[in-house]
Amino acid sequence: MAGEHTQETTELLSTLIRNACVNDGTPDSGNETRNSDLLRTFLEGPGVEIESYTPRPGRDSMIARIEGTDPDAPTLCFMGHTDVVPVSPDGWTQDPFGGLVLDAEGPDGRPFKEVWGRGAIDMLNLTSSMAVAFKQLARSNWKPKGTLLYFGVGDEEAGGVWGAKWMVDHNWDAFLGHNGRLDYVLTEMGGWNHGGGRRVGICIGEKGIAWRRLRVKGTPGHGSMPYGTDNAVVKAAEVVSRLARYQPAAKLDELWAARITTSSMPDDLKAALLDPARIESALGELKPSSAKHLHACTHTTISPNVVHGGVKTNVIPDVVEIDVDIRTLPGVTGEDVDGYLREALGELADQVEVSRIFNDEASASSTRTPLWEILTERTRVAYPEADLLPELIVGATDSRFFRGKGTVAYGTGLFAPSVSFEQFASRFHGHDERIDTESLGLCTDYWLGIAEDLLG
Ligand SMILES: [Zn+2]
User: Fold this and answer.
1) Separation of 242 CA from ligand 1 center, angstroms?
2) Residues 135, 34, 57: CA angle, nearest 5 degrees
3) CA 322 to ligand 1 centroid distance, Å
4) Cα–Cα distance between 63 and 40 in angstroms, integer?
5) By CB distance 3.0 to 4.6 Å, which of 12, 271, 413, 434 could disulfide with 191?
6) 48 and 181 share a domain?
7) Is 391:375 a contact under the CB 8 Å cutoff?
8) For residue 25, how far is its CA from the centre of ligand 1 (angstroms)?
9) Which structural domain range is residue 127 located in?
């Protein structure tokens, strides 16, 4: 029966929200052990093996497993992060950690219920619905051919250092199924409908992160006699403006073409956005909010975001450090990034030392998989006409660590047709984050169906 598990998912989601595993980026925040223990207790039962992992006190992750019987059948992992980002309580009209279930009116005038709180969209909605689907399979005494894993993971919101990255680096074997592999991971962020339900976006890839620190050197001197001096702040200002003016050329790949051709934009705009010679001027004509997103999807971007330099008003500074947030498209390597920086800086390049703060290349998974076919079928339960639209996201999720191991990872979900992509987008890390309970029921049935179809 459709929506049979809505109530159970709603209750679990409220409890996960109330546990308030707020990750502010400091190593001792998060306290995901609260949600990890909750999920552990929730999933315990016959036929389920569960293990907890403690990379650092308070920051547990957990894996539950229903072992397969056929060494040739695939292994699937549902991955839900258990942490949430901080809130600015003044912007909220309800308690962000109350997990309240309130009546609302849908865009189509129908009454429905919503669960309110930090994490309702990102991504405790999926973490809870995946857990309920897993539990339902376990309690029905399901004996699949392939192995099903449930991974409740901490520290997604601060880069996975104490979460997915740590687990993949230190406990990779814990993810291997009866076939000795981890074939598939399903997680955030995708499943939103575009164009009235004709297309449902699934995230198959994400941009890379290539943070760099630029150290600009000068010669110290007295601030009272600046004439002819080699002032590091003055030079750094020029470095920053060169970085701001420089832009690697647009890369218009198959994903971009699929996204633009299936969008509801006017044809002349589509043609311009698909033409390398015209895309820049076309972006300039769009609303800034869409332009910056579409720009980020087609360009490796360079943003100088932190500057430190100088010690005293009367001292000419001899060193300035500039931290630059660079986000790379698939196929762009760390060496390419260093090449872009040299090109941007021109003859100043020799006076700037570049060091790597972080270098994770972009990642993408193929859509030519049996799981992709299953996602298409299971999406059509709610959107009978829909085709899946493979998408690249400009941010980062835990999927990248698994793609790095050769696992196919997709970001997906299934949400009520009455809730628009724009509504979801505005609630991500925003005020008054909430989700309707119909979507929670759809998601739970979606995970259940996928596991049954894939693992048998
Ligand atoms: Zn998330």
Assistant:
1) 34
2) 125
3) 28
4) 8
5) 413
6) yes
7) no
8) 14
9) 6-206+363-455
This prediction has a pTM of: 0.88
| Boundary of a domain, candidates 312, 343, 360 | 360
Last residue of a domain, one of 360, 389, 422: 360
Specify whether 200 is located in the same domain as 88: yes
pLDDT in tens, the chain (456 residues): 678 999 999 999 999 999 999 999 999 999 999 999 999 999 999 999 999 999 999 999 999 999 999 999 999 999 999 999 999 999 999 999 999 999 988 777 788 899 999 999 999 999 999 999 999 999 999 999 999 999 999 999 998 999 999 999 999 999 999 999 999 999 999 998 887 788 899 999 999 999 999 999 999 999 999 999 999 999 999 999 999 999 999 999 888 998 898 777 899 999 999 999 999 999 999 998 889 989 999 999 999 999 999 999 999 999 999 999 999 999 999 999 999 999 999 999 999 999 999 888 999 999 999 999 999 999 999 999 898 999 999 888 999 999 999 999 999 999 998 777 777 878 888 899 999 999 999 999 999 999 999 999
Residue 360 CA to ligand 1 centre (angstroms): 18
The torsion angles phi and psi of 288, rounded to 5 degrees, stand at -55, -35
Q: Are residues 372 and 338 both part of a single domain?
A: no
Give me the residue label for tokens 């609630």.
Answer: 427
Residue 349: closest CA among 218, 239, 231, 246? 239
